[in-house]
Specification:
globular, five-stranded parallel sheet, disordered N terminus, Rossmann fold, binds 2-acetamido-2-deoxy-beta-D-glucopyranose, 465 residues
Length: 465
Amino acid sequence: MLFLALFTVIFTVVLPLHWMRSTTAVVEPSFNSVSFHDLLTNVYGAENDHIFAVQPAGRHSNSTGPREVRKVKNREEKREEGLARARSSIRKVALGDHRSNLTPSTPHHDGYIPAGAVYHNPRLFYQSYLEMEKIFKVYVYPDGDLPIVHDGPCKDIYSIEGRFLHEMEHGVGKFRTNDPNAAHVYFLPFSVTWMVKYLYTPSSYDITPLKHFVSDYVKVISMRYPFWNRTRGADHFMLACHDWGPHASKGNPFLYNNSIRVLCNANTSEGFNPLKDVSLPEIHLFGGEVSPKLLSPPPDNAPRRYLAFFAGGMHGPIRPILLHHWRNRDSDFRVYEYLPKGVDYYSLMLNSKFCLCPSGHEVASPRIVESIYAECVPVILSDYYVLPFSDVLRWEAFSVQVDVSDIPRLKEVLSAIPESKYRNLKQGVRAVRKHFTLNQPAKRFDVFHMILHSIWLRRLNIKLG
Ligand SMILES: *[C@@H]1O[C@H](CO)[C@@H](O)[C@H](O)[C@H]1NC(C)=O
Ligand SMILES: *[C@@H]1O[C@H](CO)[C@@H](O)[C@H](O)[C@H]1NC(C)=O
Ligand SMILES: *[C@@H]1O[C@H](CO)[C@@H](O)[C@H](O)[C@H]1NC(C)=O
Ligand SMILES: *[C@@H]1O[C@H](CO)[C@@H](O)[C@H](O)[C@H]1NC(C)=O
C-alpha cells in the first residue's frame, strides 16, 4: 500500500509538469492532481509519521500554572487520539475491510452517500467525510479588525473568500470551536481581496503592503498564542481567491512553506504544493447570486445547438492562442473575445455541449463552476493547474482536459468524443454539481464542506508530538 502511495506521489505530483507538455489530446487525460492516497501517508503507514512531526504544546508558555498546563495537555492528547481513531477507521476502508462501521454517528436528513465514477474511491471519501463530521474543529483567530479581517467579498469573482469566511465565522455549522486547545486547525481570517482594495495603490504593482499585513498578522497571533510556534504554522490555514493570494502568503515564509494555503490560484509553477495546499474553486457571483438561468439548466435530453462555447478577454498565456485559432471562425464552435450585443453569455453555455475553460491571468477560471451549473462539460485548458477537490473527485469523469499544444485541433478533438462518452461526462457533471454549490446556510457535501474536507485531509496527515 505504501508502495502504491509513493508510486502515485511520483506520478501525480512530480511528473504532470512534464506530462502536460508531452501528452497529446484527451486520450488518457493526465490531470494535475494529488490523490487521496498521497495525502494520507500517515493513514497508510507509520513510516511517514515524521514528515510533519512537531513539538507538542504546553511547554512554550509559562504564563499558565502547572495544573492548567496539564489540562491543556490532556485536551491535546484527546484531540490527537481522536485523529488517530479517524485515521485508523479510514485505513480500514482503504484496506477493504467491509466490516468497518459506515453508519453515521449523528442522524441527518440528507442521507447522501457518495457513489459512482466521479469519485476516486467513494467509500474512502465517505468514511473520511463522516470522520470529519464527527470530530473536526476549527479555531478562528478573533484578532484583527474590519474591513480586512473577519470579512471578505461576497460578490463578483472572488466571492468565495467572503462566503467561506462568513460561513466559518457566523454559520450554524458545528465545525467552529471557541476553545483553541480543542482545535485541529487554526484559521487566519483575513481577505486578500480586501487587502488589495484597502492597502494596494492602483497601478503601482507594489504588493509589499499585502505581504506586510500578512507578516504582521502572523506576528500578532504567534506572540499572543502558543499554537503557531508549536507547528511553525503547519496546522494553520489561510484562504484567498484573489490572484495575489500566493504573493501575499509570502509575507511569512513559514506560512508559505508549512501552512495550508487554500487558493484559487493553484499554480504548481508558483509554489502551490498539492500535498499541503488546497485548490479553491472560483465562483463568480454577479450581485452576490448565482444567475437564475444557471439554477435551472435545460432537461437532460434537450438538444444543445453548439459544440463548444467561450467568451472572454485576451488575458494570460493561453487565451491568446485560443482566440487566435478559433475566434469567430465557426458557427458550431462559438469563441468570442467580446460577445455581440444581444447575445447572452449563460444562454450560450446552456446551449453548448462543451464549455471551454482556459486559464486567464491566473490558472483558475470561474467558467469551470459555471459550466458545471450549466451542465455543459468543462474543457480544461491550463498548465500547472491543480483542480479543486481532485484528491476526491475524478475530473476525467466529468470534464475534458486538452493540452494547450492541441488548441489548434480543438474542434477535431471534441468532435471525436463519442456520444456515449459525452453522455457519461454530462451525467458526471450532474453528479458533482452539489459539491460546487454554495448554500446559505451550508449543507452537507456542498462547496463549503468540500473545502473543509480538503483541509481536514491535509490536517490528518500532520501528526503532533
Ligand atoms: C517564564 O520563565 C522565565 C524563565 O524560566 C522567567 O524569566 C519568566 O519570568 C517567566 N514568565 C512568566 C510570565 O512567568
Ligand atoms: C513564538 O516565537 C516567536 C519568535 O521566535 C517569539 O517572538 C514569540 O514570543 C513566540 N510565541 C510564544 C507564544 O511563545
Ligand atoms: C522555505 O522553503 C525554502 C525552499 O525550500 C527554503 O529555502 C526556506 O529556507 C524555507 N523557509 C522557512 C522559513 O522554512
Ligand atoms: C503559472 O505560473 C507560471 C510560472 O510563474 C507562469 O509562467 C504561468 O503564466 C502561470 N499560469 C497562469 C495561467 O497564470
